[in-house]
Amino acid sequence: EEALEAIPARLARHLAGVGILIDDFPDATTCEEMGLESEWDLTGLYRGTPLGHKSIDDPARPPDTIHLYRMPILLEWIETGVDLRALVRNVVVHEIAHHFGFSDAEIAALEAEMEGGTDEDGSLG
Whole-structure pTM over 0.85, yes or no? Predict the structure, then answer.
């Protein structure tokens, strides 16, 4: 909840209908689809169609979801010593950014903005 509250309002208003699911681990199908060697290798996953690729002419689709995987997140926390709230926020922000179709550079800019910084021109990228 804290991670979602930190999302800038101009973006948060576009998250209506995106489900946030928390599981201990990704399921076997997800591991296979992602080519993971271990269920411990994935902390979060966005499933859906990024906003910029949606159209009112599209056939009905399942709702967009963000999956957070509790045990891999906790393992990363233990291994890195990063603040747990910051780690969860980073995973949530990264997956939400996929919902917007952001590039890696745009994701980094969003994270910087949420930490109080912006790009040189004051924008997100």
Answer: no
